[in-house]
């Protein structure tokens, strides 16, 4: 439910509404725009909105969508997630680059230095890898996080890495991982969402390959309703009948989510296509569709990558991509 205050409502009138919300046992969420919008957090479905018609109130409305805090109705102003000086959802597209997996120190340092030089804003790499086969490389685990931390110290690029379950939260905190990535396979791991939603860290939530836009936004709602506002969405392609590429990069979702939600959204054209030569054109298409940036897999020697070798750019290709994105 949202309480829309009149344009010239006084602070006293706004405070009275806020106190009423608290008194009834809900939590207020205040968004100061041209008019103040006060979101009522919690399950208000059986609650009579008339209670909030007080002096200074223009309108009390139920949020029509199943996801509430994620919706633009609840929070009309665009959310900008800050990582140091970098603004995700700000005025310029943000680029996260780095290999699929952390393989060794040399691979990470060479790749991190290369992407930094080319102008990337953040560095990525999986230390814990969710692989379809149990016999495939599963990542270096904690050792991988240590190498990422070394790369951050050398390049000053904040680091993004995937967290696979709740037991890893302390470890990710210990190494001060700048953005906790929730992978596509875990998008509907609701216990994980609830636990990470309580951590005050930026979260990158990837869309499940078989999830609808509504399910994607409801997963984000789990995070927001657990307390955080630092959520970045990431479209990474969906499964369809098409087998010519790994996934179909659903750019409709980017344009639609921009209409439905205040959260920033990035696009991952690497997993979205699975084909190296398609990464640049789909990066441009993503930005044209309104994405707040892209996350791209880059490896200093893609041909020797331990996973996703076919979709990782080399440093020369990444440099060319960055040049065009900046332009
Ligand atoms: C990744 O970004 O490393 C990854 C595994 O992607 P996804 O979860 O989208 O498959
Ligand atoms: Mn990958």
Folded structure, characterized:
- The chain has helices at 11-24, 105-118, 142-155, 169-174, 190-196, 213-225, 251-260, 269-273, 276-288, 315-326, and strands at 2-5, 27-32, 36-41, 57-61, 81-83, 86-88, 94-98, 122-124, 159-162, 179-182, 203-206, 231-235, 265-267, 293-297.
- With 327 residues, it is α/β, with parallel strands linked by helices.
- It has an eight-stranded parallel beta sheet. The protein has a four-stranded antiparallel beta sheet with strand order 2-3-1-4, covered by helices on one side.
- Bound molecules: phosphoenolpyruvate and manganese (II) ion.
- Manganese (II) ion (MN) binds at residues 100, 271, 297, 307-308.
Overview in brief:
By secondary structure, the chain is of the alpha/beta class. It contains 10 helices and 14 strands. The strands form 3 sheets. It has an 8-stranded parallel β-sheet with strand order 13-12-11-10-9-8-7-14. The protein has a 4-stranded antiparallel β-sheet with strand order 2-3-1-4, with helices on one face.
Largest sheet: 8 strands, parallel
Low-confidence stretches: none
Approximate shape = elongated
How many distinct helices? Answer: 10
- Strand residue percentage: 15-25%
Each distinct ligand: phosphoenolpyruvate, manganese (II) ion
Mean pLDDT: 96
Task: Give a quick set of tags describing it.
binds phosphoenolpyruvate; 33% helix; binds manganese (II) ion; alpha/beta
């Amino acid at each position: 439910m949202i309480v829309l205050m009149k344009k010239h409502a006084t602070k006293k009138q706004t405070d009275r509404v806020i106190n009423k919300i608290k008194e009834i046992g809900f939590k207020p969420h205040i968004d100061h725009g041209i008019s103040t919008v006060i979101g009522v957090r919690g399950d208000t479905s059986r609650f009579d909105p008339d209670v909030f018609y007080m002096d200074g109130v223009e309108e009390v409305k139920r949020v029509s969508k199943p996801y509430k805090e994620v919706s633009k109705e609840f929070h009309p102003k665009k959310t900008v997630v800050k990582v140091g000086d970098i603004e995700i959802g700000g005025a310029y597209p943000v680029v996260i680059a780095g290999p699929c997996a952390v393989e060794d120190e040399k691979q990470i340092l060479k790749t991190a230095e290369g992407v930094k030089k080319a102008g990337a804003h953040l560095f990525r790499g999986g230390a814990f890898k969710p692989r379809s086969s149990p016999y495939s490389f599963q990542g270096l685990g904690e050792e991988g996080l240590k190498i990422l931390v070394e790369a951050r110290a050398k390049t000053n690029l904040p680091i993004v890495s995937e967290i696979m379950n709740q037991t890893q939260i302390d470890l990710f905190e210990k190494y001060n991982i700048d953005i906790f990535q929730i992978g596509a396979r875990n998008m509907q791991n609701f216990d994980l969402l609830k636990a990470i939603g309580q951590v005050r860290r930026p979260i990158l939530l990837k869309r499940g390959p078989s999830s609808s836009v509504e399910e994607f936004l409801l997963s984000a709602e789990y995070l927001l309703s657990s307390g955080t506002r630092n959520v970045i969405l990431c479209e990474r392609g969906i499964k369809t009948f098409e087998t010519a590429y790994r996934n179909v990069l659903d750019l409709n979702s980017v344009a639609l989510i921009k209409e439905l939600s205040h959260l920033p959204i990035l696009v991952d054209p690497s997993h979205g296509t699975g084909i190296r030569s398609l990464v640049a054109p789909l990066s441009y298409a993503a930005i044209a569709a309104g994405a707040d940036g892209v996350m791209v897999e880059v490896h200093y020697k893609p041909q020797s990558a331990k996973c996703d070798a076919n979709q990782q750019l080399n440093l020369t290709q990444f440099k060319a991509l960055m040049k065009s994105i900046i332009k």
